[in-house]
Amino acid sequence: MGNVTTDVKPERSKFSYLDLLASLGSAKHIGGKGATEILLNEAGIQPGSRVLDVGCGMGKTSCKLAKEKDCRVVGLDIMPRMIKESKTRARQLGVDDKTTFLMCDAKSLPFKADAFDAVIVESVTVFVEEVERAINEYCRVVKTGGPVCDNEVCVTRDTIGKMGDRLEDLKSVFTAFNSTTSKGMLTFEDWKEMYEACFGNVKASHHLIDMNVEMETRREDGFKTFAANIKSMWLYMTNPEAKQIMDEGRKILQFQGEFGYGLYVSRK
What is the fold of 17-267? Predict the structure, then answer.
């Protein structure tokens, strides 16, 4: 874990960040399409592959793989609203015969060992308290030689070491987003070491957040983004817990040039 203490513990509210996303009918991962493309290119997923998309959100990556790679994809999410949205997207794109969406927990996958050719995880494991258990599950269900590709929000140990008093604000952002685990707030290096402990190998790279990319991702959703914005304003005024999440989340703007995400590609 390194020499810097980042032991902020999860404080689960009745209304969490995941509840907020589900209420808005919105799901996105940091880094947008560019981060997804990097992971998929590194994975080298072939047509006809069986792929697991853990934390599929609204099904964007699942449907992309089914349509562009001719894959059979199983998408998982813990939120019922996301499963519904994913099924709708698959029908609209004509890939509902190649996709299956199930509600379940990342740390307890309902599949036999070696069931998938590849596992994709985008900004999901950070919401799981038992991170190592989830990573072990990814490893269990992927075939030997198959990739597990993960995108997780993080900062580097070096960045944390230079923050001083600002570290408390960063911790509050992670706490508001429920992005703290039983192991505390994980750094880029922490994630890399956990994947190395499980797989023995990992290709890892750290990227800084680009707010232009994040805004472009929202614009691509068109009316859904407009509707989500209206709903978010209503929640801000009527739901104190939602308001707190949004207020704390805005602090992320203080960490441009520091805050980012890690891309991890491991093979079993």
Answer: Rossmann fold (3.40.50)
